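Quick one: C-alpha cells for this chain, please?
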Amino acid sequence: MSEKNEPRSWPATFGFGLLMGAADAVPGVSGGTIALIIGIYQKLISSITTCLDFAKDMFPSHSRSEFYSTLNFLFPLGCGMLCSYYVVTKILVGPDDSPGLLRQDSTGPYIFSFFFGLVLFSIREPWRYVATPELKHYLLAVAGVLVVFIYTSINLESDSDSKIMLIVGGMLSLTAMLLPGVSGALVLLTLGQYNSVAGSFHGGDLEPLMYLILGGIIGLFTFIPFMNYMISEYIDNTMAMLAGLMCGSLITLWPWKEAYGGAGLSPNLYLQVLEDFKFASIFLTFLFFGGGIVASYGLKQLEDQDRS
C-alpha cells in the first residue's frame, strides 16, 4: 500500500497543517499521527528529505524544480501548523494565571478523551501497510508500546530554561512531532520547557524560540534521512513499529489523571473519579471519546475526497 503523490491544493494542504498543528499542541498526540491518518506521512518525510538534500548539495540548479514542488507542499502545511498551534495552545494551555481547558480538572478529561478515541480508532492506519503480519511485526509493535511506556515513566522534568535544555528540547520534540505516537508537546513537558515555550510563542520572546528552532534543525538533519531510509527499505517493519508507538501513546491520553496542571499527567488507572460518581461527567467523557472516533473516520473521508 503506497501513498499517492499527486499535487494537492493549497487550501487542502493548509487544512492538513491546521490538524497537525492542533495535535502537536496537545501532550500525548503527535502531528505524525495525524499525517498517518490522512495519508500524507510518507510525502511529508520525503519532502523534508528533498529540501535537506537540496541544502546539503549547495542548491544545485538541476534540482530546483523538485525543490519548489516540495515547497509548494511544505509551505502551506507549515503555515497551517503554526496558525493552529498558536490558537490551540492559547485555548488548551493558556498562561499560568488563567490555565486553558487542558489544564483544568473540569474540562481536561473531555479533551484527552477526544484524542484517546481519535488515536485508538486510527491505529489501524499504519498497520494496513503490513501486508502479511508476521511474528516480527507483532514484536516491533510491542516494542513501540514499551518505548512510550518507559519514556513516560521517566521523570526528567526540570525548571531550567537554559539554552542547552532548549536546544535538546528542540531536537527531541521535533523528532517526536514526526513520530506517530510520540508527542513533541509531551517531550517539552517532560523536560520542563512546555509552558516556557508556549509562553514565549504567545509573548513574543524570540530568544527561547531561536534556541528551540536550532535544536529542531539539528534534529531534522539527523532524524529525517534515517526515517526516509526506513520507510523506503523497510516500510512494513517501520509501520508496525509506528503502530506500536501510537498504541503506547494511549497511556498518556488516558482521560483521568492524577493532575492536569501541566506538571503531572500520570494516568489514574484506578479511576478515582468513580469514587464520587457523577453520571453527567462520565457520560460526557465517553461522548467526547465517541467524538474522537468520529473525527478519525472523518479525517479519512476527507483524505479520500481530496484524492478523488
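The mean pLDDT is 79.
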